[in-house]
Amino acid sequence: MPYEIYKILHLTGIFLLTSGLVGMLVLAWTGHQIAGKVKTFAFVTHGVGMLFMLVSGFGLLARMGFMHDQGLPFWIYVKLTVWLIMGGIIALVKRKGAIGWPLYFLMMAIFIVAAYFGVYKPS
Ligand code: HEM
């Protein structure tokens, strides 16, 4: 698959991941019962988003020539760490979502770290 398709998948993954996390935040924040179709919406968009981010991320790395035997550049380890955090944080949002804004800003800060390392690629 060409680089551009992986990039579109990476950006689509961000849309899905954010839909799931913010969906769960609003449910928990408003005290809405996290069950049935809204629970499915939050977890499925989050899960599929996570899958898109990982597959497209390695696809981008391959097309950009970073997948060689010298190992991955430093900035990718930061992105993989962000990916793991974004994976686990939905459990925190489900339990502590009533906190509201601070949790939203925490997720945004974590996203900005991924965006910074994705754009500047500091090695
Ligand atoms: C949830 C975690 C992640 C988020 C929020 C995220 C977000 C981003 C963003 C915003 C960009 C900049 C896109 C642009 O230049 O227009 C980017 C680029 C990139 N990301 Fe991720 N990313 C994540 C995980 C990953 C993972 C796990 C990998 C690798 C396995 C990865 C590999 C890349 C690569 C290679 C680029 C550079 C693309 C380019 O320069 O064209 N990302 N990412």
Describe this structure as you would to a colleague.
With 123 residues, the protein is mostly helical. It has one domain. It has helices spanning 3-29, 36-63, 74-96, 101-120. The model has no long low-confidence stretch (mean pLDDT 95). Bound molecules: protoporphyrin IX containing FE. Protoporphyrin IX containing FE is lined by residues 7, 10, 14, 17, 53-54, 57-58, 60-61, 64, 76, 79-80, 82-83, 86, 111, 114-115, 118-119.
Q: What's a quick, concise take on this entry?
A:
The protein contains four helices and no strands. With 123 residues, it is an all-alpha fold. The chain has one domain (3-120).
Topology, element by element:
Layout: H1 3-29, H2 36-63, H3 74-96, H4 101-120
Helix pairs in contact: 1-2, 1-3, 2-3, 3-4
Bound molecules: protoporphyrin IX containing FE.
Protoporphyrin IX containing FE binds near residues 7, 14, 54, 82 and 86.
Task: Based on the model shown, name its key terms.
123 residues, mainly alpha, 0% strand, elongated, binds protoporphyrin IX containing FE
What's the domain count? 1
Radius of gyration: 16 Å
Any idea what the shape is? elongated
Summarize the amount of helix as a percent range: over 70%
